[in-house]
Amino acid sequence: MKKFVVLIISFMVLNLNVYANSASGSILIEYRTGEVLIEENSFKHMAPASMTKMMTLLLAMEQIDNGKIKLTDKVTVSENASNMGGSQVYLNVGEVMTVDDLIKSICIASANDSAVALAEYIGGTEEKFVKMMNDKVKELGLVNTNFENVHGLDSENHYSCPNDMAFIARELLKHPKILEYSSIYEEYLKKNDGSSVWMVNTNKLIRYYKGLDGLKTGFTENAGYCLTATAKRNDMRLISVVMGEETSEIRSKDTIELLDYGYNNYKLKTIFTNDINLGKIKINNGKKDYVNLKLIDDVVDLVTIEENGKYDHKLNLKEINAPVYVGDTVGTLDLYKNGTKIKTFNITVKESIKKANIWDLYKKNFKYIISGNI
Predict the structure, then answer these.
(1) How is domain 273-371 classified at the CATH fold level?
(2) What is the pLDDT of residues 86-118, one digit of tens each?
(3) Could you list the active site residues?
(4) Which residue in 110, 113, 153, 159 sits closest to 134, CA to CA?
């Protein structure tokens, strides 16, 4: 009996350790729901160091996905970019690198020179790109972040917090290709003169923690050691942030404790997948009279490992006039657990329906007349 009590106490202490990490601020969130699992000083203003580059990368990935730039685009390195201090891959003035090379060197080597070169290519100047960064912060509704540069070197009014860093990371992960870069441990970057720079990932945990594939480290004298990490296990992705750590070893230890806490205590429960058929709805003035409905995202609930609940749902649909397109929100699904509404999910159509022209309407009316339905 005494041994059993000791084991229980030890387990409690182990779980409580995550609350007492040495970071100046920390947070752990679940990616798909955005729910906060644990946090400490998560809104405290702190220097984010090179975790700043997550916003630089986010804007770059958006530009790529929108077709405004391509990974194969060639970027000429400016004197401003070449002279950037801190971590770098030693780009020379006038050297030409692809967008792919720049993103890769930012993710692996945390290259400040690459970050500036990429920012100048997208924004025209670093200053204009910084404005784009702060505009994106406002768009995301984050109120505890202000950027003054694209790389994260210390600056008086350059700050963020664990909460904002976590949700910038969440937004970045909506572009899954970023993980193809952040999960690389080492690679050579080929230079224009035929030489190569050996890049080793600043995030050593990608080699040692199961499921960990990103995302961004940071360090300056003012910021201390920082890390935004992400890992995926059993279809659940977590995002952790620690800021203001004393050493890189402590940074890694606290990150592992945060992630372990999440995986040891929580799981994602899928109620409906987004390909389920939710039935049909009438389309006014469309080329088709009815269209099938589907969810935009899976209906999921974040629960504790031992938790069981009884789920129910209710559909709320709008009147739909053509044209309507896949991705348009045409209603919502309210999810209930044990009789209480807990979440709302958006509904869309399974196929796009164009507006009927005069000839379409004529054929419909003729069909109704023949069938005797009019």
Answers:
(1) Peptidoglycan synthesis regulatory factor (PBP3), Domain 2 (2.60.410)
(2) 999 999 999 999 999 999 999 999 999 999 999
(3) 50, 53, 110
(4) 159
